[in-house]
Specification:
By secondary structure, the protein is of the alpha/beta class. The protein is 35% helix and 16% strand. The protein contains 11 helices and 14 strands. A 7-stranded mixed beta sheet has the order 2-8-7-6-5-3-4, sandwiched between helices. It has a 3-stranded antiparallel beta sheet with strand order 11-14-13, with helices on one face. A two-stranded parallel ribbon has the order 1-12. It is globular. The model has no long low-confidence stretch (mean pLDDT 96).
């Protein structure tokens, strides 16, 4: 099990921050990378001509390592929504078919398809939140539903952000493939924590940002693109997406054919060398720790939380159905609107999400944080 990494963060001992699923604190090393990047922008004449190319590939390699991908299959993008919009441009959803999404999922893997549905002549079918918390079974039942329109796409998060329910993605991927459907995975709450191997899972697209679980900044995200979709037209038309468009050449538009691999889908203005290096450092830290040690630590923390809150009148998902790093409290009589504020007043931080309290510890949390959370919750939440 990974030991607590609190010493690598700027978190005072009296702060109990369990809200990584909203945004994670930046490790000291990531903060320093940001300061160094700002310094470079302050004196850009000192930048080597190949500096940015190295930054691009460092970040691409770091992202690929978290999901078992080859760097050539990863695009540099600013957000999950950008990636889903790219997928929407690349993939054609047949008329008369359906797209599966999760009820109350993040907007990113849902609204793109909803916005295109009427003109595209297909339907978007939400998988209803299961009363027993078993998202995997609910998705599989929806895929196999008798009499349903042909299934074109499953576009879902691998961990539901509001209740912490974990989806068994290999089972869903196999069921979708059996129906001839594409699979888009929003791995926002998974990448860097649970093990992901895109070579085995074989999604069409898998996308994640850096500002939550992989300890990076806002505005940086990465998109795995299966090779079968690497011949599409990018969302933006940029010089780096083409093989031979560069100001340094004598002929500007020398070769307009698209770049090979997922690089053609890189965002415009990708030279974010301040935040790009920050993202790379955070992802490299996560990869160095490894999925299994991280999961062991976070499972221990959420199990300890669940045990400590067992007799407090709240309900949590069964361990086999929830992600190891998210514990969402359900209040049978409803959560008090001011509970998050009361907790924050005691320097204990969690997030209200759709009537639940979402607790999301990370590698900087320890047993003392858990015990403090339980103590304060019982003090102000009952």
């Amino acid at each position: 099990m990974l030991p607590s990494q609190r010493a690598l963060f700027d978190i005072p001992r009296d702060v109990c921050f369990m809200n990584a699923a909203a945004w994670s604190p930046l490790p000291l090393a990531v903060q320093e990378a940001g300061r160094a990047g700002v310094g470079r922008k302050g004196q850009p004449w000192k930048l080597d001509g190949q500096f940015m190319a190295g930054q691009h590939e460092r970040a691409r390699k770091a992202a690929a390592a978290l999901i078992g991908a080859d760097p050539v299959d990863v695009a540099l993008i600013p957000s999950v929504g950008y990636g889903v919009s790219t997928a929407g441009k690349v993939m054609a959803i047949p008329r008369g078919s359906r797209v599966l999404v999760l009820q109350d999922d993040h907007t990113s893997p849902v609204l793109e398809w909803m916005s295109r549905a009427e003109a595209g002549g297909y339907t978007v079918e939400p998988v209803r939140q299961p009363t027993d918390g078993d998202w995997t079974s609910a998705v599989l039942e929806a895929i196999e539903r008798n009499g349903a329109a042909p299934l074109a796409l499953v576009s879902i998060s691998s961990v539901h952000w509001s209740d912490g329910g974990a989806v068994d993605m290999p089972r869903v991927a196999a069921a979708a493939k059996a129906k001839g459907a594409a699979l888009l995975v929003d791995a926002t709450h998974d990448a860097g924590v649970r093990r992901i191997d895109v070579k085995t899972l074989d999604p069409d697209f898998l996308i994640f940002p850096t500002y939550k679980w992989v300890l990076g900044p806002y505005g940086r995200a990465f998109m795995y693109v299966a090779k079968r979709h690497q011949n599409g037209v990018p969302l933006e038309q940029t010089a780096p997406a083409r093989k031979g468009v560069a100001a340094e050449q004598k002929v500007y538009f020398r070769d307009l054919s698209y770049a090979d691999g997922a690089r053609r889908y890189d965002m415009g203005e990708r030279d974010h060398f301040i935040t790009l290096e920050m993202a790379a450092v955070g992802m490299e830290m996560m990869a160095a720790w490894g999925n299994d040690p991280i999961v062991a630590r976070l499972s221990m923390l959420t199990d300890r939380l669940a045990d400590g809150l067992a007799n407090s009148g709240v309900r949590v998902l069964d361990k086999k159905l929830r992600a190891p790093h998210l514990l969402c409290l359900h209040f049978p009589k409803g959560m008090a609107d001011d509970l998050p504020q009361k907790l924050a007043a005691e320097n204990v931080h969690a997030a209200p999400r759709l009537g639940r309290l979402r607790i999301s510890p990370h590698v900087y949390n320890d047993e003392e944080d858990v015990d403090r959370f339980v103590e304060v919750f019982k003090k102000v939440g009952l």
